[in-house]
Amino acid sequence: MKNVLKYKKFLAHVQYSTEDDVFFGKIDGINDLVTFEGTNTVELKSAFHEAVDDYIILCQEHSKDIFKSYKGSFNIRVSPELHRKVSNIALMQGVSLNQFVQSALEHEVSDQQKIITQT
Fold it and tell me: Considering only Cβ atoms within 10 Å of each terminal Cβ, which end of the chain, N or C, has fewer?
């Protein structure tokens, strides 16, 4: 996991600005723009935690959903060769292309969650 902070159920990606000599980040997976910064990693993490806690309070005060909602559908682009291979495998398994891809994603997510919880 590169340049990602976790706190509660929130994730944020972080970067470093050489021009400003500051670390900065943005909370992902929400409908608003919430940023934070710090001059070192301790300040950055503290600012992230404070931003999350403040955002939760703000959402509760305004009866607003905390996390972004997802539709459950998205478009992906793959090579024509991979598309053909996946379609053939799905056909041989007797499932739709959508079912095959969903199963593959569930398997990969499960594997990655095991790795993430070990760190």
Answer: C
